[in-house]
Amino acid sequence: MGRLPFIIATSLVVITGKIISPMIVETLIAMGFLIPQQPSLDPTVIPIPVVEYKASWKCPDCSESEQYVLGQLQEKTKITDRNALATNMGNIKQGSKFILNIRASGTTGG
Questions:
Q1: Would you report the helix, strand and coil content of the chain in percent, each value rounded to 5?
Q2: Which of 35-44's residues contact partners 24+ apart within 8 Å by CB, and which partners?
Q3: Which of 54, 52, 78, 73 is nearest to 62 (CA)?
Q4: Other C-beta atoms within 10 Å of 17: how many?
Q5: Which of 2, 7, 90, 100 is the most exposed place for a label (fewest CB within 10 A)?
Q6: Rg (Cα) of the chain, in Å, rounded?
Q7: How far apart are the first and last CA of the chain?
Q8: What is the pTM of this model?
Q9: Pair 89, 66: CB distance under 8 Å
Q10: How many CB atoms lie within 10 A of CB 88?
Q11: More confident residue, 71 or 108
């Protein structure tokens, strides 16, 4: 309980300082003891174009056909979850082994 008056006194000093400090600066500027700081306005400011970042998963160890399918899955289905993409890629690999001209019966067309 002995610390409470100290905490209250300290907080009052801080609050008073925050209120009075700007008043003192304004008074010194009005009396001519301080020169007000003007914000510098540079007329050569050029706006930076905003480039939208499009997050996508890459597979550098995959074959060309696997990379193509991964890209198309992300673009056409809007799937962004890594695990969902991995599941779909695994299902495709199990079904066709990414052979481009494979048929539903498992034979290759010619």
A1: 55, 0, 45
A2: none
A3: 73
A4: 10
A5: 2
A6: 34
A7: 90
A8: 0.47
A9: yes
A10: 15
A11: 71
